[in-house]
TrEMBL record:
One Pfam match: E1_dh
Molecular function per GO: oxoglutarate dehydrogenase (succinyl-transferring) activity; thiamine pyrophosphate binding
Annotated family: Belongs to the alpha-ketoglutarate dehydrogenase family.
Protein name from the UniProt record: 2-oxoglutarate dehydrogenase E1 component
EC id: 1.2.4.2
Superkingdom classification of source: Bacteria
Reported cofactor(s): thiamine diphosphate
Function field: E1 component of the 2-oxoglutarate dehydrogenase (OGDH) complex which catalyzes the decarboxylation of 2-oxoglutarate, the first step in the conversion of 2-oxoglutarate to succinyl-CoA and CO(2).
Complex formation: Homodimer. Part of the 2-oxoglutarate dehydrogenase (OGDH) complex composed of E1 (2-oxoglutarate dehydrogenase), E2 (dihydrolipoamide succinyltransferase) and E3 (dihydrolipoamide dehydrogenase); the complex contains multiple copies of the three enzymatic components (E1, E2 and E3).
NCBIfam families: 2oxo_dh_E1, PRK09404.1, PRK12270.1
Catalyses which reaction(s): N(6)-[(R)-lipoyl]-L-lysyl-[protein] + 2-oxoglutarate + H(+) = N(6)-[(R)-S(8)-succinyldihydrolipoyl]-L-lysyl-[protein] + CO2
Any one cellular-component term (Gene Ontology): oxoglutarate dehydrogenase complex
Chain ranges of the Transketolase-like pyrimidine-binding domain: 599-792
Amino acid sequence: MQEGVMQQMWDTSHISGGNAAYVEELYEQFLRDPNSVSEEWRDYFEKLPQVNGGGPDVPHSTIQENFVLMARQRQTTRPIEAGTVSSDHERKQIQVLRLISAFRIRGHQQAKIDPLGCMQREQFPDLSLEYHGLSEADLDTEFQTSTIFIGKERATLREILNSMTTTYCGSIGVEYMHIVNTEERRWFQSRMESVRGKPEVGAEARQHLLERLTAAEGLEKYLGTKFPGTKRFGLEGGESLIPMLDEIIQRSGSYGAKEIVIGMAHRGRLNVLVNILGKNPSELFDEFEGKKMADTGSGDVKYHQGFSSNVMTPGGEVHLALAFNPSHLEIVSPVVEGSVRARQDRRNDEVRGQVIPLAIHGDAAFAGQGVVMETLQMSQTRAYKTGGTLHIIINNQVGFTTSKQEDARSTEYCTDVAKIVGAPILHVNGDDPEAVHFATKLALDYRMEFKRDVVIDMVCYRRRGHNEADEPSGTQPLMYQVIKTHKTTRDLYAGKLVEAGVMDAEQDKTLVDSYRNALDNGGYVVKALVKEPNKELFVDWTPYLGHEWTARHDTRVALATLQGLGQKLCKVPEGFVVQRQVSKIIDDRLKMAAGAQSINWGAAEILAYGSLIMEGHPVRITGQDVGRGTFSHRHAVLHNQKDGSTHVPLANISENQPDFQIWDSLLSEEAVLAFEYGYATTTPSALVIWEAQFGDFANGCQVVIDQFITSGEHKWGRLCGLTMLLPHGYEGQGPEHSSARLERYLQLCAEHNIQVCVPTTPAQVFHMLRRQVLRPLRKPLIAFTPKSLLRHKLAVSTLEDLAEGSFQTIIPEIDEHDSAEITRMIMCSGKVYYDLLEYKRANELKNTAIIRIEQLYPFPQDDLDELIASYPNLKDVVWCQEEPMNQGAWYCSQHHMRRALDNHTNSLRLEYAGRDASAAPACGYMSKHVEEQQKLVKDAFNV
Ligand code: AMP
């Protein structure tokens, strides 16, 4: 009987069928302007409770969506009288919709995600019946369920409430209603609601979960007993990470993934190495015993080590690469992204399904480190997208000794930053392995479907201190009182399975014993490990191993080739309208290609890239404004003045040419440089360049320079051919746009770790860039590039200079001279050379030779010794620099110069001409700058 009445009500309801669209529109109208709807409707809408905690607006897209769905699913359409809310039941139906919506939006805040039960949750009334104008008396009333995935058209309020509570307030708290894309939100609704947030798990899968948990716990216990008190940053409390990673890898394989690149900090790393990547436990034990594992370099602690292996999945072999990681948390994430992008580019994987980035974070670091935001912000940009990253937070609810709620962050969750890119977030109770398993599937499926970032926040705890020597109860007394008596995840789950009759206690014991025995035997413990990996999944780095920086190379390009290339690079498509100044640059480049005009910096650079592409080397350049160049010299990307379309001549040299990518980066230095480091350490054949807008902006990525670029090879044996172009030069632009802080890089130089070059001519930049790829050596190149020299009348070369010669580490005096007449030598690097040259020529100072040291590291000692020895009558030798005395090359490089003087037959002293020591890199006043510059030039000549 009641059902019949209900049916009748719906059939006549003004919010059913096509009328839903009308109500939806009305509601929209109300939100825009409350006065635009009739008083009765206004009154009705105003009384609706605020789902979002009482803010002025309501996430009306949800309401809209509900109405739209109702409209779609109900076939009956009947026009309604505008201006009326017809029945009490209809009101209640809307209130039920709002209750449902509230669960979707806020359910996570009441989800049972904390295994310790210590988490303080703010209470909101939104999930109560009363808040939505409903009461217990309505519990047995049936309502439409067309907007929820409950398996039937109608259900009682009790059923709806139960369904919503189980779905959204169980062991998974899911945040997805902030996602702008409706399809994605619907996807989550359907996946969560159709199984009430907890799908059935079969006996076999449960046993597998337990086996993985046993491995996770077993390893930590074993290490704890064998090496008590030794730092290992154990996973205890977060063991569910292991079954989670196992599922990700196996499922990715089924999706057809071929590679997974993993970034993670120290916590749980050893466990991942042994139980996921298949590192031989006996190797790890050797490391615990302090044995030297690498033949070369300085090495790194065991919980920073990277690893590579192949494992078998239902979809075939999957290559796993765990990136080497420094202590600086979160910085590895953009490195991983760069490595993934490089692998995707290598595979022409434009769908980005073959290589998957997996970033494992700590809760405190994810909330605290700025590079997290930078990396997220890169995730959908053309230059940096990788088709979505799977983020996992090992959320042990404490940062070293810092408590989460009061001090570690200002946001409710440590994951809130991920909302900037609309990433869905799955908070999951780490003590519920089946929930973790489901959250993992959801996250991976979402990534594969929508190619966007997704976060799993695995809420767990840290059974011990920050490391095994730390006592945590001193700082977190209450939490650790709970932890002390809290059973392990494995034991809890084993108990559950025994209780459910999935296994008996004896079988459980066998599981524990057999893992321990495997460790005792020192064998591999990953069953899926492929012992003879498919080599095709690896890049061959052997051609780049074992070379010195003096390795032979030929950077010349035949004149005719250069001319042809120069012309090709000036071609624009039919009807493409180039802007006036750019058109002039192209005309000039055509003249340069014809040999009718000297080659300038921009043309030489472009020819270097073009010739490398012709020789089969991919080129990738990123940085702020690199397409045009900060100082408008490059114009590698042309913009059609008619329709804004772009044309990249270097990407159109020939049909099957290697990749030429040039991307203006987002305004980040740290994440972007780390990304390019990751890219370069994965692609040895390419020229990979990051250019700073101004060189000193690289101080925003000092961590990458210190922890990876200058030391990665020595710590981890990872070669890197990355090039950094850092505009540098004192032109009166003030303290922040003058110096690229040469001294910083020189101070980091040792053991031939990097190359530091200061090219001063177009031919030099041409040969330097080509040398970086053509020489088999892969060492980072830090190049200090000019600003005013880009257009300086003397800083030009000829086509022949490019066609002949090579990069000169030192450029001797260029004016004709008799070496016996030279009594004074000025040594310098960079732009100041041209100031010195002009002064010398203007004053006809024929007794002075000016030499340019174009490579400051590795220092060309032999070349300098030879050059100095060639001037028998030298009396005075000066190092001249624009930088203040405490900066530039003076302190870091003078010992090399002195060594050359010591070898001379005359007794020579090295003098200094340059700015006085200064706290700031440069002054802020043009007049002072000019005065200083003139003085240092005169000082160099001792006048
Ligand atoms: P991956 O794919 O990163 O796991 O690398 C596979 C293997 O290639 C490593 O185990 C190394 O032997 C080698 N390899 C990868 N990257 C580098 C690098 N940057 N320098 C030297 N060898 C590398």
